């Protein structure tokens, strides 16, 4: 790719870059904007985080800039790392600018903590992860906008290639998180990982163990939010990182055959479902539900001569596995997790419903159990139809349409989605002079069942009448007031 000079000049034409250049010139310091910000200019992607590298102390340059910006700037220095950050607010613009002195680094084998020495710009570029992330633009007046690209990063951007500037074994061994980053960038940008670089990931994959779970999940989240997330998981599998960071997903792989009968490969099926959901929704947690919807299958797999392969209750087993997976992977243990669990637990319901006659009562129950997440559940279930048999797909999708229509009708008529029972436990206790006890729960659940079965409407009077009848059948009489 020929660097588009006008594009560079247009991007740098911002007061903040002019000011950084001026401050650096006054200190007689070469100074460059470097890394992801430069890459994203050429990819036409928005980017807010600006990385500045200078020869000498990055902290001194940041201090000088902060002094010029005055009240609008907030400076933080990290002396241990020799870095500084300037946060800068102007009107509705919020920028974070990181400063670092050009460094020559080497890493000790058992940690990510580097041993740092001052270096040249080239030294600093050498120690960056990928050629496309090592591009630098000069901000000094006499070299304003000059692109420094020692490793053919522009050509790699053009061809869509992820490649390390140095021997990939060195780059990945210096910081094994970069193996995940390579796969994440390939997925996000739809780039290819250059074969030598990919082979090095495979050779170094076990080094991922020194990387914190938080950093790994950060990259996995970026893969999940990409347009075609399956690409990342297929690469993770091919380079053998997947079993190390996500063994449960890896366990979905493979096909077993008994008496000539095989089951589908649940890994590739899961990825197809994930991509289907990603086409229909940006909701990251719905995507996690897709990724985990069949996670219980390996533990529930059985072969039966009559039925063939079965995965009974894999949805409930999967639902139970989720807290353990979320805890280990440092995913949030909050309502997001509960939502994923709920969808995984319920994901068979619309399918079963669509296979049978769609009765009002089954639809009411589904609506009651799914509540406000019913639309997401329907997206998941439609995405779960990955059969190659066109007729089968059509039959399922038509049935789902019927389920959707019924859901709308019943919701309009009965407002089941956020249903509260028209009778409360207190009323039962008061009416029959009961303490909090089992019969109270039994009467309540009989009322709920009657409403969901459509035997009585979701209203107080009919529910009270039903309560009196149910209690009478249990031998309970109302107490006189
Ligand atoms: N970098 C690196 N090795 C890492 C992380 C970062 O060499 N493990 C370098 C790369 O030059 C990268 C820059 O630091 O471009 C900034 O890193 P970061 O902000 O994490 O990533 P970006 O490349 O900006 O991409 P994104 O914002 O999408 O994370």
Shape: elongated
The description of the largest β-sheet is:
7 strands, mixed
Give unreliable regions as ranges.
Answer: none
* Ligand identities: cytidine-5'-triphosphate
E-strand count: 15
Rg over CA atoms, rounded to whole Å, is 30 Å
Description:
- InterPro entries: CCA-adding_enz_C, HD/PDEase_dom, HD_domain, HDIG_dom, NT_sf, PolA_pol_head_dom, PolyA_RNA-bd, tRNA_CCA-adding_enzyme.
- Residues 262-369 form the HD/PDEase domain.
- With 481 residues, the chain is of the alpha+beta class.
- Among the domains are: 5-157, Beta Polymerase, domain 2 (2-Layer Sandwich), CATH 3.30.460.10; 160-245, Hydrophobic Seed Protein, CATH 1.10.110; 425-473, no CATH class.
- The protein is 54% helix and 13% strand.
- Strands 3-4-5-2-1-8-9 form a seven-stranded mixed β-sheet.
- Strand 4 (83-90) and strand 5 (93-101) form a beta hairpin.
- Helix 19 (349-355) packs across helix 22.
- The longest helix has 25 residues, at 390-414.
- The N and C termini lie far apart (88 Å).
- The model has no long low-confidence stretch (mean pLDDT 92).
- Bound molecules: cytidine-5'-triphosphate.
- Cytidine-5'-triphosphate binds at residues 35-36, 49, 51, 128-129, 133-134, 175, 177-178, 181.
Structure summarized in a few sentences:
By secondary structure, the protein is of the alpha+beta class. It has helices spanning 5-12, 15-26, 36-43, 58-69, 121-126, 153-159, 168-174, 177-189, 195-204, 213-224, 230-238, 242-245, 247-250, 266-280, 284-292, 297-300, 314-329, 335-346, 349-355, 360-370, 374-383, 390-414, 425-432, 438-452, 460-473; strands at residues 31-34, 49-54, 73-78, 83-90, 93-101, 103-107, 114-118, 136-138, 147-148, 161-162, 192-193, 257-258, 261-262, 302-304, 308-310.
């Amino acid at each position: 790719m020929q660097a588009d000079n006008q594009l560079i000049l247009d991007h740098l034409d911002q007061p903040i870059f002019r000011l950084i250049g001026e401050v650096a010139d006054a200190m007689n310091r070469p100074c460059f904007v470097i890394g992801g910000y430069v890459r994203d200019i050429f990819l036409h992607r928005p980017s807010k985080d600006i990385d500045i590298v200078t020869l000498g102390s990055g902290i001194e340059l940041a201090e000088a800039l902060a002094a010029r910006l005055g009240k609008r700037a907030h400076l933080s220095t990290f002396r241990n790392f020799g870095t500084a950050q300037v946060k800068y607010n102007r009107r509705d613009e919020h920028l974070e600018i990181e400063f670092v002195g050009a460094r020559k680094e080497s890493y000790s084998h058992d940690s990510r903590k580097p041993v740092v020495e001052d270096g040249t710009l080239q030294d600093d570029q050498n120690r960056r992860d990928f050629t496309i992330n090592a591009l630098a633009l000069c901000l000094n007046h006499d070299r304003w906008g000059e692109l420094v690209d020692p490793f053919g990063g522009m050509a790699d951007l053009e061809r869509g290639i992820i490649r390390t500037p140095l021997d990939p074994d060195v780059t990945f061994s210096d910081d094994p998180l970069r193996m995940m980053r390579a796969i994440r960038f390939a997925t996000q940008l739809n780039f290819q990982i250059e074969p030598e670089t990919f082979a090095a990931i495979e050779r170094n994959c076990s080094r991922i163990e020194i990387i914190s779970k938080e950093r790994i999940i950060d990259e996995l989240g970026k893969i999940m939010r990409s347009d075609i997330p399956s690409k990342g998981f297929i690469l993770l599998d091919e380079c053998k990182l997947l079993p190390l960071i996500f063994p449960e997903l890896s366990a979905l792989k493979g096909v077993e055959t008994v008496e000539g009968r095989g089951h589908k490969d649940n890994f590739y099926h899961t990825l197809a479902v994930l991509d289907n959901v990603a086409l229909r929704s940006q909701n990251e947690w719905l995507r996690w539900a897709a990724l985990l919807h069949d996670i219980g299958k390996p533990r529930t797999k059985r072969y039966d001569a009559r039925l063939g392969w079965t995965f009974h209750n894999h949805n409930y087993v999967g639902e139970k596995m989720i807290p353990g997976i979320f805890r280990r992977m440092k995913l949030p243990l909050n309502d997001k997790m509960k939502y994923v669990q709920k969808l995984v637990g319920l994901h068979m319901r619309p399918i079963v419903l669509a296979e049978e006659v769609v009765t009002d009562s089954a639809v009411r129950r589904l609506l009651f159990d799914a509540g406000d997440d019913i639309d997401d559940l329907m997206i998941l279930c439609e995405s779960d139809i990955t059969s190659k048999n066109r007729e089968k797909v059509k039959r399922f999708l038509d049935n789902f349409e019927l389920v959707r229509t019924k859901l709308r009708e019943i919701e309009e008529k009965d407002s089941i989605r956020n249903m509260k029972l028209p009778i409360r436990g207190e009323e039962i206790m008061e009416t029959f002079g009961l303490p909090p006890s089992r019969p109270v729960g039994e009467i309540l659940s009989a009322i709920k069942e009657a409403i969901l079965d459509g035997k009585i409407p979701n209203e107080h009077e009919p529910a009270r009448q039903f309560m009196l009848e149910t209690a009478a059948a249990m031998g309970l009489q109302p107490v006189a007031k």
